[in-house]
Amino acid sequence: MTKKKTDYKESLARVLADYDNFKKRTETERAMWIEFSSEKILMKLIPVLDNFEQALKHLNDQGLGIAVSEFARVFAEEGLEPIEPKVGDVYNHELHEVIETVAGGKSNTIAETILKGWKYKTGKVIRFAKVKVWEK
Fold first, then answer.
1. Range of the domain at 84
2. Where are the beta strands (DSSP E) in the chain?
3. What pTM was estimated for this model as a whole?
4. pLDDT for 19-34, tens place per residue?
5. How many domains does the structure of the chain reveal?
6. Beta strands 81-83 and 96-102: pairing type?
């Protein structure tokens, strides 16, 4: 009987360990799905913010400015950060997408930012910044 008791105890310990591993794995997968869902929604909202920012450049409307600020705040809270290269910054293929090269400046540096990019809190680039780069 002692052998059976020992076997049952060992079996129970394995089952409990398997269950604990299952719970941890399920929680990890759940968190990954939540991150993925948030990322997808944010990706859909980025063009909306782009349009608001373009309208704000031309209208200078206070209400529109508040909407743009709120978008930026929510994006920051959700872990999105803008990629806004400045003129003269070194081109980085991991953050920037070259849409045009222009003559006249220091080679391989940003000549102009056409559209800012966005990076997610995981480090993943959601949208590369669209830039013009000085050619060699």
1. 80-136
2. 81-83, 96-102, 110-115, 117-119, 125-127, 129-134
3. 0.73
4. 999 999 999 898 888 7
5. 2
6. unpaired
